[in-house]
Automatic annotation (TrEMBL):
GO terms for molecular function: 2-oxoglutarate-dependent dioxygenase activity; iron ion binding. InterPro entries: Phytyl_CoA_dOase-like (IPR008775). SUPFAM superfamilies: Clavaminate synthase-like (SSF51197). This is Phytanoyl-CoA dioxygenase family protein. Keywords: Dioxygenase, Oxidoreductase.
């Protein structure tokens, strides 16, 4: 990994924003050319699913997409983003989950039905007994289509909700959570969000297909949340990327890492010692 990435280290202002609100928006994380190249691969994958019978009016949830193209692999340790991820979570991290979502126009009229609000990680939210629950992981969402207006299948969030274990859902089944907002962003924007932030997908009532890539980073002792068949990529990856793709010397090393388990820590010790905690 090149030291130039350190210019993108998490700033104190960004840390405060993430800690206080549960999310962080990074505009122009991807150049227009980068967005176009990624979009081409997303479109190819969507078309393959359509050829296999996927309904073109339904959202496509496609997990485990890192092996599908080198451009997806390159975002695992993307220099503008990874320093902020380790700035928040520390160095004992890896990519535990990745999914692509394509949300085509539904062709339906807008409705106010309550969306699928949730915190990430399923049973973690029931079996963790603390209040608030611990952070454990975050996701980075790379928005490839234009979501600068609401109604385009936007990602919705409730800012500042990450420390709330429960939220009040409308009993009628209509309306959204109090304080909810659509995240309106341009193509190329990356949005970091704490897994505890209450969030949801929403229907696409526009005529623009929504395209997003989600990269989930968590501690190395968390299990993968999708098949993550990335082991064949280990050999051609540098040590830090290998760590992020789940490599380790043995099971104990996920809990009590040696230097070989966490080359990211070794790299930080050498190039950014103030960031090693
Ligand atoms: O598709 C979206 O906007 C939301 C995705 C989501 O809920 C998730 O990644 O947990």
């Amino acid at each position: 990994m090149d030291q130039t990435c350190l210019q993108y280290s998490l700033t104190e202002e960004e840390r405060k924003q993430f800690d206080e609100t549960g999310y962080l928006i990074l505009e122009n994380a991807l150049s227009p050319e980068h967005v176009s190249a990624l979009t081409k691969e997303v479109d190819r994958i969507f078309d393959e699913h359509v050829n296999d019978g996927h309904d073109t009016t339904k959202a496509l949830f496609h997990p485990n997409f890192i092996p599908d193209h080198p451009l997806f692999l390159d975002l695992v340790d993307y220099e503008k983003v990874l320093p902020k991820v380790w700035g928040i979570l520390g160095w004992n991290i890896y990519l535990y989950h990745a999914h692509m979502i394509v949300t085509p126009p539904t062709g339906q009229e807008p409705s106010d039905k309550t969306f699928g609000w949730h915190q990430d990680s399923g049973r973690m939210n029931i079996e963790m007994e603390t209040d608030p629950r611990p952070r454990m992981s975050l996701k980075v969402a790379y928005f490839l289509s234009d979501l600068s207006e609401a109604g385009r299948g936007n990602f919705w969030i409730v800012p500042n909700s990450h420390l709330k274990n429960t939220v009040q859902r409308p009993e009628s089944g209509f309306g959204q959570l109090e304080g909810a907002i659509p995240v309106c962003v341009k193509p190329g924007t990356a949005v970091f969000f704490d897994r505890r932030l209450w969030h949801t997908a929403s229907p696409n009532w526009s005529d623009i297909t929504r395209k997003v890539l989600f990269y989930g980073y968590g501690y190395r002792w968390i299990r993968t949340k999708d098949d993550m068949t990335v082991q064949s990529l280990w050999d051609k990856s540098d040590p830090i990327r290998r760590q992020l793709l789940g490599a380790g010397t043995n099971c104990n090393g996920y809990y009590t890492p040696t230097d070989q388990d966490v080359p990211l820590r070794e790299w930080l010790k050498e190039y950014a010692p103030s960031q090693v905690k």
